[in-house]
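Onboarding guide, step 5: your first structure request.
Type a short instruction followed by the sequence, for example:

Predict the 3D structure of this protein.
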Amino acid sequence: MFDNSVCDGTTSAVVLTGITQCTLPLSTLTAAPYSLLLGFKISAYVVAYNDYGLSLASPIGNEGVIVLVPDAPVSPINNPAITDKSVIGFSWSEGASNGGTSVIDYRITYDQSTGNFVTLATGVTTKSYATTVALTSGRTYKFYIEARNTVGYSLQSVTFEVLAAQVPDQPRYPDTVFNGLSVTISWPIPFDGATKITDYIIQIKKADGSFATDTVDCNGSSPAVVSAAACTVPVSTLIAAPFYIEWGQTI
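The system replies with structure tokens like these:
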């Protein structure tokens, strides 16, 4: 089976001494009647003829392989098990096609939190990475990834961003102060993990030893409560459901 339109052995361009070659578009080889896929070998032989007839067929050639650069990596995602205020970890998946030959490694680029992108790492052989450069806590960094095979680098992945931060430190024990008709609960503000604390969960011990939340007076999502790291609960609330705390009990 041969391509008369591109590899027509009767044309002067092909038979001219010193050229003896033809070039086929990849689109021709991957379409009917060849239907070769990425990674397939390209096998060919040549028969010469003149006015006296046809020669024997040549041996099959060196069987080049159809390969392209791989597809861009996909689904980059922060790894919260690694990311903290000084290190960012993330992972990704391979694109749909490796281009017909295995991905060798990955190149990672980041913007230094300035918008100026530079290469962060090359030769990364796993589909995950943790930064080793100095990062500024509380800053957001942007990254993209490229895959490399024997042909070259893929297009870049989508650009994604990760905040160099972590969960807040554990709050210290709260203080409770009885004010006659109310109780004020306050606590030292813990280290915020390099990003602003937005909520607290405040649990008050009930008479039966379990804990419950006063969502009205001690709502941990209230900006006033978050800012003050304190809330005040009326005694009337504490002696009623669901707390049922009696006079003389500690809070």
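Each response can be followed by summary notes, for example: The first strand starts at residue 41 and ends at 42.
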